[in-house]
Input
Amino acid sequence: MSATVLFVDDEVRILAAIKRMLRQENYKKIFVSRAIEALEIIEKEPVQVLVTDLRMPEMDGLALIRKVKEKRPEIVCIILTAYSQVPTLLAAINQGDVFRYLTKPWNSEEDFKKVIQEAIACYAQQEEQKNLIKRLTLQTRAMRNTLERYEKRLKNYHQQHKIILHHFTTYIEPAFKKLISEKNLKEYTEIKQQFEEFKRLLTSQEFSQ
Output
């Protein structure tokens, strides 16, 4: 699926110039001249990158970006600005709200295109990391559930072992010893060996842990 890039500028001639410059770029491009239109587009379209002018009459670019981040924090934002406005952007860039800024008029079409491509790549990387975290979370949850089931099964196993051992030592062992004492031991050698082996298994450290 190709990316969608939304361009916002109140100057129609700027939007027209960007449209001409990017006509051969392989991603969907949407152009609007008002911030309110951009917010409506964000609600309906799977926008990955927002490129907005800094100074606009109804709502400036930074205010627009703040509103966009409230709705869609994953969108990568780029500011279009004049050289004299660059200091205004430093705080927003440092806070991570703005990915890059592009000056207008721009000196190089290739640099302009490169920044857009970097923003698209940044969005893709963010989504990949998000999906990885989601997969790891699901795997961790599944592993925890498996361990809990195993622990429950092991607990039941230990309880059953204690019941068997109690029954053995309380009823079977005394009866068997009495039987041995009353009969010829030679006739019960094999039975006794089996009895002792069974007892050893029940009481062994390995079995009872």
In short: The chain has seven helices and five strands. The helical segments are 12-21, 35-44, 61-71, 86-95, 109-182, 189-203, 205-208.
